[in-house]
UniProtKB/TrEMBL annotation:
Residue spans crossing the bilayer: 223-241, 261-280, 300-319
Keyword tags: Membrane, Signal, Transmembrane, Transmembrane helix, Transport
Organism phylogeny: Eukaryota, Sar, Stramenopiles, Ochrophyta, Bolidophyceae
Source organism: Triparma laevis f. longispina
Gene Ontology molecular function, alphabetical: UDP-galactose transmembrane transporter activity; UDP-glucose transmembrane transporter activity
GO cellular component, one term: endoplasmic reticulum membrane
Protein name, UniProt field: Uncharacterized protein
C-alpha cells in the first residue's frame, strides 16, 4: 500500500475515533455478551496501558452514528490490515540485503522512527480530545523505556537470525516472565490450565524453531533466541510498571485519556531510542544505509505509519467495544501473521514444524478463551 494512503488512513481513523471518544454520555456496550469490570487489564501489540483508564473498561457514545457491526468492521479490519502489514514490513526490513551484501541491523534507530510517527499521531489525537493536565511523567518515562526495549529486542532477534514466525509465537508467551516473577516473589497463583497454556506456547514455539525443512534456511541463532527472551523479560517488567502507573494516576486523581498514553509513552520511547541508538552509533550508520538503499527506506516509512495507524484502530475499537473484543482481534491477528509469513515469505516447515504451529496456536487460543470465561463470570 502506498505511503500516502497509509498516512491519510491513519489521520482519518484518528479523527473518527477522537470524535467518538469525546461524545457523551457514555454507556457500556455488551458485545457478544462480553462484560468486563472497570480496570480490566488488556495487553495489545502497541497500546497496552491506556485500556485500564477507559471509562467502564471500554465504552461507546450513545449516539455514535454508525451501527455496531460497521464500527466493528472498521476497528477489526483496521487492526488486521495495519498490523498484518506491519509484521510483514518488519520481517522485510531485517531480511533485506543490499547489493553489497549488507543488511539493516540498526534496531534502535528503527524504534526512533516508529516512536516518532506515533508521537505525531498521538499529539494530534491529544489536541483533538483535549490533553490531561498534571500527568505523572516519571512513570511514563519508565514505561516508555521498558516498552521500547521490548520492541527493540524483538527487532534485534530478527536481525540476528530468529525467524519471524518463531519470534511472533514466542512473543505470545508474555505470561512466562509474569509467572516466573510471581513464583519467585510470591503474591499470585495460577491454575493447572494456565500452566498448560503457557507450556503449549513454549513447546510449540520450540518445535517450530527446530522444525524447518533441511535447506530451508539457517536455524534460529543463539543470539536471536537470547534477544527474544530479553524482550519477554521487558514485557514482564512493563506489566508491573503499568500497574504502578495506573496506581500513581489514581492516587493523584488523574484519568489520562488514551491519546495521552499514546503520546507520552511514545515520547519517552523515542527519547530512549535516540539516546541508545546515538550511543551505539546507529544514527549515522543507519541513516547512511537507509539513504543508500531507497527500497528499505520506503519499507521503514510504511512500517512506522502502520504502527501509528494500528494504535489508532486499537483506540477506535476500545472506545466502542469491551476491551476483550480488542484482545480477541489482536490475539487472532498474531496467528494470521505467523501463517502469512510462512506462506508468503518462503518459510518451509516439516510436519514437526506444523505440529508446533498447531500446539502454540492452541495454547494462544486457549488463553484467549480463558479470558473470555473469566470476563463472563465477572
Amino acid at each position: 500500500m502506498h505511503t500516502r494512503a497509509f498516512l491519510c488512513l491513519c489521520l482519518l481513523v484518528l479523527c473518527i475515533s477522537s470524535s467518538f471518544a469525546t461524545k457523551s454520555p457514555l454507556k457500556s456496550i455488551n458485545v457478544s455478551k462480553l462484560k468486563l469490570k472497570t480496570g480490566t487489564k488488556l495487553q495489545t501489540d502497541l497500546a497496552p496501558a491506556f485500556v485500564n483508564n477507559m471509562p467502564n473498561g471500554g465504552a461507546v457514545a450513545d449516539k455514535a452514528g454508525l451501527p455496531d457491526s460497521v464500527k466493528l468492521m472498521i476497528g477489526a479490519g483496521g487492526i488486521y490490515s495495519a498490523f498484518l502489514y506491519y509484521g510483514s514490513l518488519q520481517e522485510d526490513v531485517f531480511r533485506y540485503t543490499a547489493s553489497d551484501g549488507t543488511q539493516f541491523k540498526q534496531a534502535w534507530l528503527l524504534q526512533v522512527l516508529e516512536a516518532a510517527a506515533n508521537v505525531i499521531v498521538g499529539g494530534i489525537g491529544m489536541q483533538v480530545t483535549g490533553a490531561t493536565k498534571g500527568i505523572p511523567k516519571k512513570m511514563f518515562a519508565v514505561s516508555g523505556f521498558t516498552q521500547v526495549s521490548a520492541k527493540a529486542f524483538t527487532s534485534l532477534a530478527l536481525a540476528n537470525g530468529l525467524s519471524f514466525p518463531v519470534a511472533t509465537l514466542a512473543k505470545s508467551g508474555k505470561m512466562v516472565p509474569v509467572m516466573i516473577g510471581s513464583l519467585l516473589l510470591g503474591g499470585a497463583s495460577y491454575t493447572v490450565r494456565e500452566y498448560l497454556q503457557v507450556a503449549a506456547i513454549i513447546a510449540g514455539t520450540a518445535i517450530v524453531s527446530m522444525g524447518k525443512k533441511k535447506g530451508a534456511g539457517a536455524p534460529s541463532s543463539t543470539m536471536g533466541v537470547m534477544f527474544i527472551l530479553l524482550s519477554l523479560v521487558m514485557d514482564g517488567v512493563t506489566g508491573g510498571v503499568q500497574k504502578k502507573l495506573k496506581a500513581e494516576t489514581k492516587k493523584v486523581g488523574i484519568s489520562p485519556k488514551p491519546y495521552d498514553f499514546m503520546f507520552w509513552t511514545n515520547v519517552f520511547m523515542c527519547l530512549t531510542a535516540v539516546v541508545i541508538s546515538g550511543a551505539l552509533g546507529e544514527v549515522t550508520t543507519g541513516l547512511s544505509y537507509i539513504t543508500a538503499n531507497p527500497e528499505i527506506m520506503n519499507k521503514i516509512v510504511k512500517f512506522a505509519l502502520c504502527s501509528a495507524a494500528g494504535q489508532s484502530f486499537i483506540f477506535f475499537t476500545i472506545a466502542n467495544f469491551d476491551p476483550l473484543v480488542c484482545t480477541t482481534v489482536t490475539t487472532t491477528r498474531k496467528i494470521f501473521s505467523v501463517l502469512l509469513s510462512i506462506f508468503l515469505k518462503g518459510h518451509q516447515l516439516s510436519g514437526q514444524g506444523w505440529g508446533g504451529i498447531a500446539l502454540a496456536c492452541g495454547g494462544i487460543l486457549a488463553e484467549m478463551e480463558g479470558k473470555m470465561n473469566k470476563s463472563k463470570k465477572a
